[in-house]
Design brief:
The structure holds three protein chains of three kinds. By secondary structure, chain A is α+β, with helices and mostly antiparallel strands. Chain A folds into two domains: 230 residues, P-loop containing nucleotide triphosphate hydrolases (Rossmann fold, 3-Layer(aba) Sandwich); 114 residues, OB fold (Dihydrolipoamide Acetyltransferase, E2P) (Beta Barrel). Helices cover 24% and strands 34% of the residues of chain A. Chain A contains eight helices and 19 strands. In chain A, strands 6-7-8-3-9-10 form a six-stranded mixed sheet, with helices on both faces. Chain A has a five-stranded antiparallel sheet with strand order 13-12-11-14-19, with no helix packed on it. A four-stranded antiparallel sheet of chain A has the order 2-1-4-5, covered by helices on one side. In chain A, a hairpin with a 3-residue loop joins β15 and β16. Chain B has one domain: Orthogonal Bundle (MetI-like fold). The longest helix of chain B is centred in the first third of the chain and has 34 residues. Chain B starts with a helix and ends in a 13-residue tail after the last helix. The C terminus of chain B is likely disordered. Chain C is an all-alpha fold. Helices cover 73% and strands 0% of the residues of chain C. Chain C is built from 13 helices and no strands. In chain C, α4 packs parallel to α8 and α9 packs antiparallel against α10. Classes of the chains: A alpha+beta, B mainly alpha, C mainly alpha. Chain A: It comes from Levilinea saccharolytica. Chain A: It catalyses: ATP + H2O + polyamine-[polyamine-binding protein]Side 1 = ADP + phosphate + polyamineSide 2 + [polyamine-binding protein]Side 1. Chain A: This is Spermidine/putrescine import ATP-binding protein PotA. Chain A: Part of the ABC transporter complex PotABCD involved in spermidine/putrescine import. Responsible for energy coupling to the transport system. Chain A: Its EC number is 7.6.2.11.
Chain lengths: 352, 259, 296
Amino acid sequence: MAFLEINNVNKRFGQFVAVEDFNLKVERGEFVSFLGPSGCGKTTTLRMVAGFEMPTEGEILISGADVTHKPPNQRNVGMVFQSYALFPNMTVADNIGFGLKVARKGKDEIAKVVDEMLALIHMESFRQRYPYQMSGGQQQRVALARALAIHPQVLLLDEPLSALDAKIRVELRTEIRAIQQKLGITTIYVTHDQEEALSLSDRIVVMKDGHIEQVGSPFQIYNFPETPFVASFVGTLNVVDAVVRDPQSGALTVDGQEIQTAQPLSVSAGQTVRIAVRPEMLRMTANSGSGGTNELSGTVDTVTFLGSIVRVQVRLEKSKLFFDMFNNPHLVPPQVGEKLTVYFPREACLVV
Amino acid sequence: MKRSRFWSWLWIGLGILYFFIPLLATLNFSLRMKKDVISLMAYEKVLADPGFVKSFTFSAEMAFFTILASMILIVPTAYWVHLRLPQAKPIVEFITLLPFVIPAIVLVFGLIRIFSRPPFVLTASPALLVAGYVVLSFPYMYRAVDNGLRAMDVRSLTEAAQSLGAGWGTILLKVIFPNLKVALLSGTFLTFAIVIGELTLASLLAWPALGPYMALLGQNRAYEPAALAIMSFALTWGMIGLIQVFTRGTSGTALGGMK
Amino acid sequence: MKSKQQGDAPLARPSLPKINWNWLGVMPFFLFALLFLILPASSLFVGSFQDNQGQFTFNNIKNLFTPYILNSYKLTIQVSLVTAVGGALFGFLMAYAVTLGGLPRWLRTALTTFSGVASNFAGVPLAFAFISTLGRVGLVTVILKSLGINIYQQGFNLYSFWGLCLTYMYFQFPLMVLIISPSLDGLRREWREACENLGGSSWHYWRHVALPILTPALISTTILLFGNSFGAYATAYALTGGSLNLVPIIIGAQIRGDVLHDTGLGYALALGMVVIMGASILGYTVLQNRASRWLR
């Protein structure tokens, strides 16, 4: 039996359906991310696990026990909020020790746990600081320690990094994952940032409009999206219209140029479909994949310098494709107006 | 949740009673001048009394001059402090808050002591009353203007005006004042509400203002004071209502009053 | 602009000490405040230490410590304390009800408007309103009498201590509502949730989180309310006509006619008020510093 089970959970606010038929089993020690745009129900689901919202239907089990209607202060679930939510009137040590104090633990035990937690987040010297004396990243680390200090069965993180600077975000992300693995704690992580979800998770739950679109490992989600939404939400995509020429062989035309998919198509000849290609699959040189190579020729439309990479957009007739190339000071990037052919393997061509 | 909402309703209910019972009682009383019938006689009597008209006019004049003087004094000062003299801000703020520490009764005592003998003999002039009112209006007027200035970017506006060739007078009259309109209006209404029925200064400096008139009426009449109280409440309500109409959406709250 | 001026200055007059001419801009204000606020206030201070001939003396201060004067201070402080604490408590509960108590939104708007009006509705008209309500023939008195409860026989008197307190409360608690509501809005939902999440109950939340966070605002507002009734003259005068022995009333009587037969004592009395107000503000600063270590 799974450690955390969310079975047939529905949540409605009046007429509005926030979460619909949500089913998920999370194993002990697993790191699962809920990924989706804002308003997709990911935070509501997390708040139901924490006990701040009650499901309209369905049940939530932690370690076999039904906690669906338990109040939040009896669930032993740790939560980290987007806005840190540290108690501003308490020092770091008092914040971390709060849960234990409420549970009437002894002074010595509290001090011991606080020491452990401070060591865990590498902030031993911040013991007596108040929240206002710390940066956002430091506050969020303390909030993490505070949630972990009560030795929760499940750790919940609600967009913990979205209020932070890009650089701190990457740093803290790595730290969260390291701590999670060290403690082996079952974790649910809510985010709208696909990069975070891909880099952190054992499994990702992609959500849209209150329901689950796809559950899978980062690898599966990125490479084999099951729905057009997952394909477009996770990673960046070139999406172009193509006319089916021969469904059997997977032959299509894009602005009159012929390409092939790896699989046969399920629509009849003459129909228009949308095909998607990840930009990183496009090359400027012919380097055939196992199933053969497609090529498309066009004119360079824009060249955008983004630091480590250069983004090039190629216009065919109507359609546009972009791809990224590494910045190399010794190579001249393509010039606007230049004719260019891009190559990509047949299996990189997703029909959405 | 249900339980706590019960308590919320209870406290609000008690508050509503506290607000309205005295008003209802006063209203009821004010309508009972003719025996056994509801009538507006008390109001008619008050409005027909030349003493009321005279004292009301006098107080309204005092309020007008107070507001004018207070603005002329506070707006340029607050503006200048914002723009050029931020180091003076704590001192100016402290002075504008002093009327909270020095009650009106103490202030008027001091004013009489200073201005009843040479070199400045002002006790015979209503200017002293206005000056006292201006001091009492400091906390409200300064707060309103300061909030208003904080809401706009004084420095950029001034520099933009200067770069377009405006002089100081033009900047104050054409740029700063119009942008402070809401703040000044709320300061104006609040000051008016305070000054119009003020008793302490007016009575102890012996001016025939509305406050002393009302107090006198209260000593020898029964129904007219109730009518006056209702009218005065309506006036206060009108002033505060006007402030809220003008400051809708901003965080201007009206605090104050002469107790 | 500023740096340009500084750049020009050495060319013109290199040897003059620097004067910040910007101070000129606030001179009218300072001059006015000096004449009509500082000077009058300090003249009372000087007067408190002078006898009728203008000689220095401690007699006025010494004369404050007579039972009559001490009692009037005591009474004034009692009225101020009762109405400050009572007003703060009741105002807090009302503000809590409309901000966090789950009541409809329009109630809050209504309460804010009422509070704005009621906190400014003071002085003579307020006294009239309470006389019409709880005076000997006031509406409530009469209604209660018809129900068999004669509050004046039970010992209540509008023109005495509790009547005055009840009247002052009319402007005290609305002021509390106005000032404390924004602080209650500042209590973030996440704090309560974090507390619950860590196993805390409602009691833990209020005891360890919400009340400590609100303490600075509660202290400062209560002091403000204290000062608000401490200096009140008009309401008390119109209500009791001078029968209650409050310090502002005595000062007022002293100004009208020489009731103390000693002007110097009048000045000392006024000085005492300023000292008590100053002391309460000082106490406020100390408490504030202790309660708000965690504030920026």
